């Protein structure tokens, strides 16, 4: 290909992701200085002669080596005396996808024919890489129409959710049914978008495109964090939680994420990209969650085929500035032997951050916690002033009232409990004035109204 300088600008997230992926490719090639690569705050200009199919596929093999079945086959072939298990793995991998089935349909690994198998891989390496990269669900196919790989600029964008079959639908989506009125945005560099996303099952791209160097720095850090966390989880034989890793990365990146940012999410089961807009205030809340957010890394069962992921719910609430009342209600209702008390206390903490609660609210929540513990611990001689049965009854009534948003009933039960236990509830005045605005105070009181030992950790935040 002749020398020709191509200039890219981050007009939207697609161009930003293409720039990030392209820079990784050029860095791998060793192209990092003028005149072949010129990078400013707003533009990337590179020599198009480096846009080569053979080099692209070599880079794809290097970058996605864990997804290349032939790489694992080669690693196993290096064993001088392969075990029966290793032989079975090689034979399974030789049937892992269509291209490998076609190349190895007349051969089987028996532990001695390593050279024959290696020769087949070497002779067909480029085709094997291309078809694996093109059709694997978490590689190119996850982001773009597989048939558009290595194509020049097209009428419509090659990305999933943007691509349109122009011969069939071109007229119907065009103004006045005239295909000449349709305007699509597509460039060959969109083929580099898969290299810009990182994650486990969910893939993320952080479009921090105020400055191209910062854009690269942010996503490189995200990629490094994902790799290190995945290696650590593999060593511990633990399941990888992408959202947990992502929050870790955002917390670490907080110092150089100076403005609101756009986050692009791609899930393999969805034929489109999702967009999250993370405000600076949301990032601050995530940073404040650093010491306790891992308590949210679990799911609760709603039905046989429906589970609620607590961390996902919390993350969505922080991003969209919506309260977690429904989740708190669910956990309060299902709590057995105080098992959810600590998690609920942290959800309340997130709620207060989202509502931008002041010190007065936080102090009143501490007073509600102290009042609940005073009721729980108060004794008449050697017996509790409020028996276990009575305490559970009051607690159930309070939970039902708050779930049903029956604030008058909640206040009546609270007054009744205060009189029965002979413990003044000074925090209640805030509820009388504005129950909805001070709901976290009521939640704190109910959540602390138990005698379970595993509630101790919660108390450290309210003392």
Q: Main sheet?
A: 4 strands, antiparallel
Shape: elongated
Query: How many H/I helices?
Result: 21
Q: Give the termini distance in whole angstroms.
A: 70 Å
Spatial arrangement of strands, main beta sheet:
4-5-6-7
**What's the β-strand tally?**
11
| Rg on CA atoms, Å | 29 Å
Overall mean pLDDT score? 87
Structural class: alpha+beta
Word description of this protein:
The protein is α+β, with helices and mostly antiparallel strands. 51% of the residues lie in helices and 9% in strands. It has 21 helices and eleven strands. It has helices spanning 13-29, 53-63, 69-77, 84-93, 98-103, 114-123, 125-135, 140-143, 166-169, 212-236, 242-252, 280-288, 310-320, 325-334, 341-354, 359-377, 388-403, 407-421, 428-433, 439-448, 456-462; strands at residues 5-8, 37-39, 44-47, 198-199, 203-207, 261-266, 274-278, 299-303, 306-309, 379-380, 383-384. The strands form four sheets. The protein has a four-stranded antiparallel β-sheet, with helices on both faces. Strand 4 and strand 5 (203-207) form a beta hairpin. Helix 2 (53-63) crosses helix 7, helix 11 (242-252) crosses helix 12 and helix 15 (341-354) runs antiparallel to helix 20. The longest helix has 25 residues, at 212-236. The radius of gyration is 29 Å and the shape is elongated. The N and C termini lie far apart (70 Å).
